[in-house]
Amino acid sequence: MSKKHVFNAGPCILPQEALDATVDAIKDFAGTGVSLLCISHRTKEWDAVMDETRALWKELLNIPEGYEVVFLPGGASMEFLFVALNYLEKKAAYLETGVWAKKALKEAKAYGEAYALASSADKNFSYIPKDFTIPTDVDYFHITTNNTIYGTEIKKDLDSPVPLIADMSSDIMSRPVDVSKYAMIYGGAQKNVGPAGCTFAIIKLDSLGKVSRYIPTMLDLHTHIDKLSMFNTPAVLPLYVMNRTLHWIKDQGGVAEMQRRNEKKAATLYAEIDRNPLFVGTAAKEDRSIMNVCFVMAPGYEALQDEFLAFAKEHDMVGLKGHRSVGGFRASIYNACTLEDVEALVACMQEFEKLHA
Predict the structure, then answer these.
(1) Domains held by the chain: number
(2) 167 among known catalytic residues
(3) Which of 12, 90, 187, 238 is least enclosed, having the fewest CB within 10 Å?
(4) Residues 259 and 145 occupy one common structural domain
(5) 274 has catalytic annotation
(6) pTM of the model
(7) Which entry of 191, 204, 265, 321 is annotated as an active-site residue?
(8) Are residues 246 and 99 in the same domain?
(9) Active-site option among 139, 167, 171, 341
């Protein structure tokens, strides 16, 4: 079987080392003679995995004292509700940069006054708004750092006069982050640090406890902090894959090395998009994501879209079709996607150009 070049937006491509270790653990977890799928989460062997996974997060992102890392079953969309319930007392401001930011804002509106401080909806979310001032009279300011559907990204940590909360589902661990600037960072694992089925949240402990409402036990972040993410049965398999993926990141040189690789991959692919007369990028150049590269057929070549997707599939490219809401193409080049994968895509685009340009 020929090698596939995987550009899926999520679930993402994962390191082969993490997959191999997980297969072994499914057969025999930690030398217990019991499959990972059958292990009790109340054993010392599983406690060790949870402790180590938290420690890896703290080490790789240089998380300061006063923060805790929580892992919960589900997806980032549930975290939208966690944010509103645990942080919104009266008013919150959101930066509206795409579908997921809009959905996060929608959840908040059910619990207080929540509004879009700035939006890029006027140009189909093709850029990151910049001309705004974060108000001081809100409980928090929420951002979505990377927009998978539209291929835009906030690449620097913002300075905020109020608690800053960020959905980093699709660019976490792709670059260093100054965690001290955030009250909460959260996301789904399936974009860069594991398979679907679990989430992460990095929480500044003293940012909690500011709301007066009753918070249901399962939706109270204190519940999961106090019980070390095991108030109920954790998502054992996804968390184990996350653990091995974090080990891989560390072994490769850490988050700074991930950033170097990701910027090289992105620069290589964007250079071809800008050079090739058949294709054009859809995101503003200054805001282009290093995780999700979105592009379409250039004017005059729109009729070739389906032909290119078929051509790419024949050349072992997987997952290039853009999100159903915008069409076109999307190459998600997460951490485990290699430069060789990107170079193979560039070669495919050049071959297609020779047939049609």
Answers:
(1) 2
(2) yes
(3) 90
(4) no
(5) no
(6) 0.97
(7) 191
(8) yes
(9) 167
